[in-house]
């Protein structure tokens, strides 16, 4: 599932952390794929099934992080918050299943597993597993930005929620809209060059964006809040409501439109 390329100029500890993020997110994704096989049963209750998937992935990731990095703190969507993380130098920021709705629909691949490390004030490692597509993107193996930005940029949007700032951006650029589920899937579409802009203004938490941002930064993409300010992680309140990930050539125009 994982595409990996070692960067020999990376510090050894960074390489180790990123390898762990890749391994853990990929393995959690494979676990979720096996769990998902139950969807073919008529006895599955959808809400309980999705909650069970969150729990299965959370328990696996928490166990692996505790085994490998017992001294590190963890911030996860699926576990109680712990104020100890605020004073920690290393904090893993995790979303065990991003795109629970899509996970619960047979045949959909736009869901993800996020594992990122926030260390001494910055994101130093990140992996986004897309198990339904058989891919794990990471901050260690960025995809080169070779393709040319099309005259009508491609903007990834939610299937169900389309905030007006994002739609105004799409109209201003005469953009092609691409519907997709999870935040991780949207961000990785930009990383792969399948889309050009992912702008979000409908509310998120740190675990929704930390791993995607770590991977996008490594790929040379623009990342910021929609007002152009920096994204800050491991805050007392993990609410981080908006996000822009896009090709650097489109950043100035996107920020201008988003802030009108």
TrEMBL record:
EC number, as in UniProt: 3.1.3.7
Source organism, top-level taxon: Bacteria
SUPFAM superfamilies the record matches: Carbohydrate phosphatase
A Pfam family of this chain: Inositol_P
Keywords tagged on the record: Hydrolase
GO molecular function, one term: 3'(2'),5'-bisphosphate nucleotidase activity
PANTHER family: 3'(2'),5'-BISPHOSPHATE NUCLEOTIDASE 1
Protein name: 3'(2'),5'-bisphosphate nucleotidase CysQ
Organism listed in the record: Rhodococcus globerulus
Lineage, broadest ranks: Bacteria, Bacillati, Actinomycetota, Actinomycetes, Mycobacteriales
